[in-house]
Amino acid sequence: MSRSLKLAAVLSVLALPAFADEGMWLLNSFPAEAMKKKYGSAPTQDWLDHVRLSAVRLAGGCSASIVSETGLVMTNHHCVHSCVQDLSTPKQDFVKNGWFAKTQKDEKACPGMEINQLVEMTDVTKQVQEATKGVDDAKFNEVQKAKLAELEKACGTSDELRCEVISLYRGGRFELYKYRRFQDVRLVFAPEVAIAFFGGDPDNFNFPRYDLDSAFVRVYGKDGAPMKMDHYLKWSSELPKEDDLAFVVGNPGGTSRLLTVSQLEFDRDVKWPAGLTRLSELRGMLHEYAHRGAEQQRHSEDTLFYVENAIKAYKGRHQALADKAFFEGRVAAEKAFRAKIDANPELKKQYGGVWDSISATEEKARLLRKSYATLETTNSSELLGFARTLLRSGDELPKPNGERLKEFSDARLPQLKQSITKKAPIYDEFETMMLGWQLTKLREELGADNAVVKKIFGKQSPEALAAAAVKGTKLKDEKVRAALFEGGKAKIDAAKDPMIELARLYDADARAVRKQWEAEVEGPLKKQGELLAKANFALNGTSSYPDATFTQRISYGTIKGFKDDTGDYRPFTTLAGAFERHTGADPFALPKTWLDAKSKLLLETPFNLCTTNDIIGGNSGSPMVNAKGEVIGLVFDGNIHSLGGEYGFDEKLNRAVAVHSAAITEALEKIYGAKRLVDELRPAGAAKAGDK
Amino acid sequence: MSRSLKLAAVLSVLALPAFADEGMWLLNSFPAEAMKKKYGSAPTQDWLDHVRLSAVRLAGGCSASIVSETGLVMTNHHCVHSCVQDLSTPKQDFVKNGWFAKTQKDEKACPGMEINQLVEMTDVTKQVQEATKGVDDAKFNEVQKAKLAELEKACGTSDELRCEVISLYRGGRFELYKYRRFQDVRLVFAPEVAIAFFGGDPDNFNFPRYDLDSAFVRVYGKDGAPMKMDHYLKWSSELPKEDDLAFVVGNPGGTSRLLTVSQLEFDRDVKWPAGLTRLSELRGMLHEYAHRGAEQQRHSEDTLFYVENAIKAYKGRHQALADKAFFEGRVAAEKAFRAKIDANPELKKQYGGVWDSISATEEKARLLRKSYATLETTNSSELLGFARTLLRSGDELPKPNGERLKEFSDARLPQLKQSITKKAPIYDEFETMMLGWQLTKLREELGADNAVVKKIFGKQSPEALAAAAVKGTKLKDEKVRAALFEGGKAKIDAAKDPMIELARLYDADARAVRKQWEAEVEGPLKKQGELLAKANFALNGTSSYPDATFTQRISYGTIKGFKDDTGDYRPFTTLAGAFERHTGADPFALPKTWLDAKSKLLLETPFNLCTTNDIIGGNSGSPMVNAKGEVIGLVFDGNIHSLGGEYGFDEKLNRAVAVHSAAITEALEKIYGAKRLVDELRPAGAAKAGDK
């Protein structure tokens, strides 16, 4: 952690002031004055509205952008990796070999993919906070959940619309977001994983980088034709240079910059160590599982990718908190903030107790975490996930909207239905391993003598239980799942499906611990979060940005290298650099298509670039645009220093990493023969590789 | 962590007062007065000398005891697990099926096993501290090392003697320990792993327990005959009862109860998270590796056992430090202690700065840890370990004794030679996996662009490098290793062995980072530790016990159950309980021998027991004796609460777990037909199962 981040930690108190290029800003609250002060210019609200409508979200957890009038959408390869794997077969491995639809008719539907375009934002803070006013801790979550379900339903959720109330500033502000929902998304282009993820895990979260981590999908309408788009991003008409302004528009998944010290302690001492321990074991297992054979490798490699990616991210976050100076800075900042609150009798009366309340709630969280995580939130088996969703849908859907578990509220049904009925392959052997492992961990975490464990296992071993459930279940067939979902509780119970019966064995226990968690941890933290946000507004006003929430944000910055104890790095790499880094051994082996096309390529074409934009996981696939709003890059990563971005931002070191737009078109044209895409992306006159 | 441990943390300051049954006492500094006060009696020095000479150490990391006049030694199955595996073949799996030498002639030599009997202890504090007086930080380690090597050599180290200077109280006191060394150790009896480790990882570190974690080996003399012993422990003549006194004599491996807060922070934030992450990945890999086939399972299962055992131990230690109240207690205790030092101008002048110095050294440790661990201290490949030892022995042995790396000092040569020339099978496939993984981690930790990484890999992948080195090396043959070790540098260089050449590739880098670590971390910590110990002696006197150092200690306590939030546990289990817990599915499947013998067994025979003795890893295999010095049990574990014993002891909850002596003889006689052993252990008149 750098000195300046430590300093930021000391100074920032709770206000998240816009230090340098720090900030993941709401598109309806852009800090135009601050940006003008630093850079002499700032976007207009029209410009912001245009990029808001052009940048979209993959509901599964990535960002993307519309890049043509006919529904072409650009995102990262790693954001469509699962789709590419789902479309592959033992004979056609598109992950390994890449895929390009020669004609628009060849474009293939991605199972379960949903794209959201944010069309409207409405402030509903007053309605939400009124509803929970004076409600006690234990009921807080329940009352708020019912209110949000009501607002979302009234907003008009349907197959075409998705409405979500977003909690900003951890309860300080609520906005109702209305999205257009697209559920017919088809794969257009994906390169070989060897170039999308060139350098593999060793290079992940590093820069310099040489990755074509890009892919294209297309949004289709109900009529089965490509969707016509009113807003889309144009390809840049000139190549960007060092120090040029860059904007990133996307959906950062979450940050923890507003957490109190006791919450940071929970993350440092409990959350990340537990997560790293669990995922590392899974990593080792998956790595070795691939030795069972080529097919097993193919079935598991997307999971391994996500696991390794998460491990690296968790490590970075844990390290930020393990940095003594950084942590001491946060302690000092909180102390200073509390002193200010305590100095004002009125503020002290309203907010003075909030830190101790949060600390006491975190103690509860420490006690409940293990059983809550083990029984309710952790799932490594797709089939068991389906089983639980079906089982619970039978119980939940007959209830009034506001009383259901929140994932079964009316506003969430279209996506829930899509996810459960998606047509994607399931691999018995892989599922058996994953479920067996999950059950082994369940027994390990709760202990062999725990009553729930005894109920689940009886005299069986985790492996035998998993093998029998995977073998016997009919849930591998999406039609069976669809029929059960539609059929409701009676059909689901009558099915006597072994996977559903396995889920049923401990569903009541899982629900009980969830209820306790929501009453004793989640609800109180929401209530306390609202108070903390109000204390912050009272002292610092509302000009700062809220923690990220996987909703649309914009960050501004410039194209800039960085210097750390390993070297001094320029902001651009070139295609030539990839050939220099090629060793022939995975993960440093370029695909044959690249080696074959080398002589045709303009090797000085910029390949990847890095910028000072403040991003985090969820921003993957975000478009990077210039001041004109034209695409200059495709964000796919941050450098190693950016991992601490969960807790703080340091302009000297944190960098967003993107594929350069010129590399995308150069590769599409000269390596992949994808002229129809290049023409769609880059109308006459747009900049090309080799332009000065 | 219980309330009383928190209290202990608050009160204990740095003095480790003998709270209740807390303490791993030196056998030449037994707190007889304190024990008498609590229990009305205490052992005499003669009694202590007798048990000191009867209890022995397995140099590889366990404890044991001599239990017959003809050299029979009792220890845990898990302490000889590697030997049992080494003696197995694809056709004779002694780990799975157990092993009993029907006659003394059938006893089989355990490769690389060394047993030490502590025959003499001499205080050398003055010599050691004089040698380093006034020496500056960077040279401290080197000067002290030379002095220790000199003292050890002068003591007369040979094939028959092992001399070691032990640093007690982290530098406050030094003792020269003289051991008799036994290197011909033969396996006599080991049960099936299924009963030695019944309950497997789920039950590990838990009580109630049902494990026959016992084994017998025998010490042989140079004449090839069983060694005649002057001191040995007799089998108990009566069955122990709840609340009876119990002593444990063994070699606790290490505790960290004297660490300062900045050192505890290092453990909490760096050491355990890094260790858990690494070992968890290895765990997942090994677990899945066993799916390659029965042979692969057989080759890897002892490693998996050690890894899972370590993970559980690390988790417990991390959790102790992650407990906020416990940690805050340590912070308060240190503050109080510093205040006392600061209140006395003379003490303040001498010791007032030591905490800040340690804190600054810990910051250095944080910076250097990754490269030091990666290049120098972490090794998962047996062949690479041999290669490095050979390479370095060529460079080190020609140097004067005091200037060598400490593991090459004259006093350490007999064990070094034994370990490198031991005849034990090496499995190419397993080695290739382990070495490939280690190299992958090396690249991950240091980064693909690190100069050392580039030097090691060139254009090769870790897997290819590992496969080639394992395939090409001749070091699998112990005769080749012995010849190279004897041949010295010229022979070692001339061999051009690919494994040695791999070690050579980064040996200079590994040595450099070690040198830096010793100069900037290890040396300063030793120097500061000496000051801290003196500060402690100045305020609290010398009546307390030092942190554990894998040297002989005695702990006293009583046979007692415990009560925690999962239940109220009695101190004994019975053989009947094992049959009740049997499910038929691993790890809860009793061996066939047990199921077959059930009707012959006295099922009410006590099986395992728990006591308030203060123990920790390294105590495995320790004899548990009654006030008469007779064997009543064999320590093999602690309960889950004992894992926090690294940092503190809580008599309410911490328990040592042992196999009851009656269960051992009952099983030997009725299940294993090992009458010759029972007769050797239990002369006429000794207590038997069923006695009241």
Structure summary:
The structure is a homodimer of 692-residue chains. The first copy, chain A, has 692 residues and is α+β, with helices and mostly antiparallel strands. In chain A, strands 1, 2, 3, 4, 5, 6, 7, 8, 9 and 10 form a ten-stranded antiparallel β-sheet that branches. Chain A has a seven-stranded antiparallel β-sheet with strand order 12-11-17-18-19-16-15. In chain A, strands 13-14 form a two-stranded antiparallel ribbon.
Describe how the helices and strands are arranged.
Two copies of one chain form a homodimer.
Chain A: H1 3-11, H2 32-39, H3 45-54, E1 55-58, E2 62-66, E3 72-75, H4 77-87, H5 94-97, E4 99-100, E5 108-109, E6 115-123, H6 125-131, H7 137-154, E7 161-168, E8 173-182, E9 185-190, H8 193-196, H9 200-203, E10 215-219, E11 245-250, H10 261-289, H11 294-322, H12 324-343, H13 345-351, H14 354-377, H15 382-396, H16 413-421, H17 428-446, H18 451-457, H19 462-472, H20 478-495, H21 498-505, H22 507-540, E12 553-558, E13 562-564, E14 567-569, E15 572-574, H23 575-581, H24 592-597, E16 606-611, E17 623-625, E18 631-638, E19 656-660, H25 661-670, H26 675-681
Antiparallel strand pairs in A: 1-2, 1-6, 2-3, 3-10, 4-9, 5-9, 6-8, 7-8, 9-10, 11-12, 11-17, 13-14, 15-16, 16-19, 17-18, 18-19
Helix pairs in contact in A: 1-12, 6-7, 7-22, 10-11, 10-14, 14-17, 14-22, 15-20, 15-21, 17-19
